[in-house]
Fold:
Amino acid sequence: MTFNDRLRTMFIEFLKEEAAIYDDMVKYGKSKGWIQPSPMHIPI
Structure:
């Protein structure tokens, strides 16, 4: 992988596509109200 630029570029493109799909799923889940907000951390 460190010597093959084409393969590295292909994996980076796969990663970008997966991140875009995940982003779309999160946006859809938020619009449906399926995603619960995480609890806030309040320092004592």
Remarks:
- The mean pLDDT is 90.
- Helices lie at 5-32.
- The chain is about 65% helix and 0% strand.
- The two ends are 48 Å apart (CA to CA).
